């Protein structure tokens, strides 16, 4: 029991660190809950369009202008070149359409008159461009088929009015799920940092050269001693997991008591185990407390940045994500993202998530293997 | 007396570098055996081999009549070690540190608490129980180090240079403590390169150099090896080669050295050496300020055996 008692006495010295990372997680989780608002409804976006009409009075031209009016905000401007350029520059208008002289007449004559445009190039402008292209394509399709002007206009309008009705059948509460996913992804940083930092520091105290010598010459079986240290490290890691799960339950009660919630918890447990094996491996490699501080920053913070714990993976460049494959956090965060968007949960749909967990276990196995090899080599070297 | 340790023909080498060569010695129950030698002479290596912290190439080591092996846990229960470097947890208080190291031997909580309290009292750290190692001075830290090594009341104690970099007060405290441990029945192996310490503390001394035992015996037996009866040191202002030659002609004089106003005369025997020398200096009108006579030291023994000073 003395090993456990001393292990916890030393851990107590680092409670400030555990508290710091926990508070960070709470703050991050809280921020996520308040800012992550999404809607199930589509709101159509109307671009600001200015039309320079050099073919006034023509019915075909007027119909084009009317179509644009229905689907965008028509802005009034001075028709001078500078005024239009300024308006585009200051984003007062997204798209400018120049309808040439005799446009309507030319269309009826089967010609393809050129419509000049000026654009800001942003997504609003692309909506306007899409509207114009759509109109012109329909107009060109019927210009050779319908020769009577009134009928031609009517046919164009009937065609353009046909809309596709899109119903969202998903019952997922994407707002809460996004928050849960972001919470667990950020928790990857907290879990890894708290486990590596504390376990490495505590074990470095136990494995300090002279303390270790004293232990080796004591009447305690050295293998048993190492086993007890290992069990204490497991218990500590498990408690860290419990702490972060309790926080998750407190913040996302609705999701955590569902199958999806349990899978999130299980994923966090697998990741905690993987972090523990990494911590044990680092503690075998490095004994200096100062170096451990640096290592925690490089591994925990570095992998958090590269794998999407802080910034969602969607916003990270592909090259960064490719590099992130070398960190366990990548697979864990990816599994959280997969769970977030998963419509139904079944063995089949869970396969990609379980694959990510398997990858974490592979990492853990590699860390254990390396740890055993290095510690055996070091033991041999110490007694030479 | 019963033999507590028997080391026979112990040899150790790092590749081609021999660090111990056929070292053999015994330690008897209740004695303090001093290991004297300069840094790098093989003192700590010998202890590490005995404690199975290091492998050795040749030889046998028996403790309490049994062969010492890495898994000799029953033997280890009776051994306490105080290493040269302070080996404690920075994160634990004085009490918790001693409790932990004692706990590696003693499972019973009640007994352990009593032992820890006794160890604290033994090294005089009663007022520092709740202090952390960083808050202790060098001397107090050394005392904590000793308490951690002896709290479980071992029958055999290894003390590896426990007084290095310690203030005189703490040093005296430590030396007094070692004597007390012996009085309580412990057998002690004490390594140091301070000859004064082994001189006043040890029953027997082993002088080591370059991994070999040069001499072994009681302090007096070793001093006889130096073949010096007396050494007289005189601080003089006027000295000529002729006067020095005159001193060299005395029958009992072994060696005469004069350097920077200090005259050192060593005698291999004789009873009235000091009065004879003073009379001679007076006759030759040599002005002297300080004069003192001393018995040979272990340093002289070491010098005699190796041709170099102990602290070279």
Quick description:
With 384 residues, chain A is mainly α.
Mind sketching the topology for me?
The complex is a heterodimer of chains A (384) and B (312).
Chain A (H helix, E strand, L loop, with lengths): L1 H11 L2 H21 L12 E6 L5 H13 L1 E2 L6 H9 L5 E5 L3 H6 L7 E4 L3 H21 L5 H13 L12 H33 L2 H8 L5 H30 L1 H4 L2 H27 L3 H19 L10 H7 L3 H14 L5 H36 L2
Parallel strand pairs in A: 1-2, 1-3
Antiparallel strand pairs in A: 3-4
Helix pairs in contact in A: 1-10, 2-8, 2-10, 3-6, 3-7, 6-7, 8-10, 8-12, 8-13, 8-15, 10-12, 12-15, 12-16, 13-15, 15-16
Chain B lengths: L2 E12 L2 E12 L3 E5 L6 H8 L7 E6 L2 E2 L5 H4 L2 E4 L11 H10 L5 H15 L14 H13 L5 E5 L7 H16 L3 E6 L2 H7 L2 E6 L2 E6 L1 H7 L4 E7 L4 H8 L4 E7 L2 E6 L5 H11 L4 E7 L3 H9 L6
Parallel strand pairs in B: 3-8, 3-9, 6-7, 7-8
Antiparallel strand pairs in B: 1-2, 1-4, 4-5, 9-10, 11-13, 11-14, 12-13
Helix pairs in contact in B: 3-4, 3-5, 4-5, 5-6, 8-11
Description:
Chain A has two domains: 249 residues, no CATH class; 114 residues, abc type-2 transporter like domain (abc type-2 transporter like fold), CATH 3.40.1710.10. Chain A contains 16 helices and four strands. In chain A, helix 8 packs antiparallel against helix 13 and helix 13 packs parallel to helix 15. Chain B is of the alpha/beta class. Chain B folds into two domains: 222 residues, Rossmann fold; 69 residues, Alpha-Beta Plaits, CATH 3.30.70. The longest helix of chain B has 16 residues. Chain B starts with a strand and ends in a 6-residue tail after the last helix. Chains A and B meet through helix 1 and helix 9 of A and helix 2 and helix 3 of B.
């Amino acid at each position: 029991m003395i090993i456990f008692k001393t292990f916890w006495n030393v851990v107590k010295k680092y409670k400030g660190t555990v508290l710091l990372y926990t508070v960070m997680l709470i703050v991050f989780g809280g921020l996520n809950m308040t800012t992550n608002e999404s809607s199930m409804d589509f709101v159509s976006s109307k671009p600001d369009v200015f039309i320079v009409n050099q073919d006034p009075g023509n019915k075909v031209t007027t119909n084009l202008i009317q179509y644009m009016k229905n689907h965008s905000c028509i802005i009034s401007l001075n028709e001078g070149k500078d005024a239009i350029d300024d308006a585009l520059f200051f984003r007062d208008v997204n798209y400018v359409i120049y309808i040439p002289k005799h446009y309507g007449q030319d269309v009826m004559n089967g010609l393809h008159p050129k419509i000049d445009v000026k654009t800001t190039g942003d997504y609003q402008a692309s909506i306007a461009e899409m509207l114009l292209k759509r109109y012109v394509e329909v107009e060109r399709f019927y210009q050779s088929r319908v020769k009577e002007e009134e009928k031609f206009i009517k046919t164009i309008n009937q065609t353009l009015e046909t809309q596709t009705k899109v119903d969202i059948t998903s019952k997922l509460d994407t707002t809460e799920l996004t928050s849960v996913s972001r919470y667990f992804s950020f928790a990857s940083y907290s879990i890894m940092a708290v486990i590596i930092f504390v376990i490495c520091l505590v074990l470095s105290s136990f494995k300090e050269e002279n303390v270790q010598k004293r232990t080796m010459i004591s009447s305690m079986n050295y293998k048993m001693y190492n086993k007890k240290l290992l069990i204490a490290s497991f218990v500590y890691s498990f408690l860290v997991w419990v702490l972060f799960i309790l926080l998750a339950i407190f913040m996302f009660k609705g999701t955590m008591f569902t199958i999806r919630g349990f899978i999130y918890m299980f994923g966090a447990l697998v990741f905690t185990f993987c972090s523990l094996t990494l911590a044990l491996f680092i503690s075998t490699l490095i004994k200096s407390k100062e170096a451990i501080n640096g290592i925690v920053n490089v591994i925990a913070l570095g992998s958090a940045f590269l794998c999407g714990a802080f910034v969602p993976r969607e916003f990270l460049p592909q090259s960064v994500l490719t590099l992130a494959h070398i960190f366990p956090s990548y697979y864990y965060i990816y599994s959280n993202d997969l769970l977030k968007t998963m419509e139904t949960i079944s063995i089949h749909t869970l396969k990609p998530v379980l694959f990510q967990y398997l990858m974490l276990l592979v990492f853990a196995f590699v860390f254990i293997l390396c740890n055993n090899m290095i510690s055996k080599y070091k033991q041999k070297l110490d007694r030479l | 007396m019963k033999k507590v340790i028997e080391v026979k023909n112990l040899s150790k080498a790092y590749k081609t570098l021999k660090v111990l060569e056929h070292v053999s010695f015994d330690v008897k129950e209740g004695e303090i055996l001093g290991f004297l030698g300069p840094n790098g002479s093989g003192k700590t290596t010998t202890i590490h081999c005995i404690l199975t912290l290091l492998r050795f190439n040749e030889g046998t080591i028996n403790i309490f009549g049994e062969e010492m092996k890495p898994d000799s846990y029953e033997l280890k229960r009776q051994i306490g070690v105080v290493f040269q470097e302070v080996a404690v947890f920075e994160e634990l208080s004085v009490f918790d540190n001693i409790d932990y190291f004692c706990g590696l031997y003693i499972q019973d909580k009640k007994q352990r608490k009593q032992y820890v309290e006794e160890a604290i009292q033994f090294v005089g750290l009663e007022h520092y129980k709740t202090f952390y190692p960083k808050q202790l001075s060098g001397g107090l830290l050394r005392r904590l180090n000793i308490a951690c090594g002896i709290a479980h009341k071992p029958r055999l104690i290894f003390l590896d240079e426990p007084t290095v970099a310690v203030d005189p007060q703490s040093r005296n405290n430590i030396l007094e403590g070692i004597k007390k441990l012996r009085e309580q029945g412990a057998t002690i192996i004490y390594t140091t390169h301070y000859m004064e310490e082994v001189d006043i503390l040890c029953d027997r001394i082993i002088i080591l150099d370059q991994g070999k035992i040069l001499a072994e015996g009681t302090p007096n037996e070793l001093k006889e090896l130096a073949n010096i009866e007396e050494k007289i040191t005189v601080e003089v202002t006027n000295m000529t080669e002729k006067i020095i030659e005159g001193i060299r002609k005395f029958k009992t004089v072994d060696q005469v050295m004069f350097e920077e106003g200090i005259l050192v005369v060593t005698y291999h025997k004789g009873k009235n050496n000091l009065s004879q020398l003073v009379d001679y200096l007076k006759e030759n009108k040599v002005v002297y300020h300080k004069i003192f006579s001393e018995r040979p030291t272990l340093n002289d023994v070491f010098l005699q055996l190796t041709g170099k000073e102990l602290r070279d």
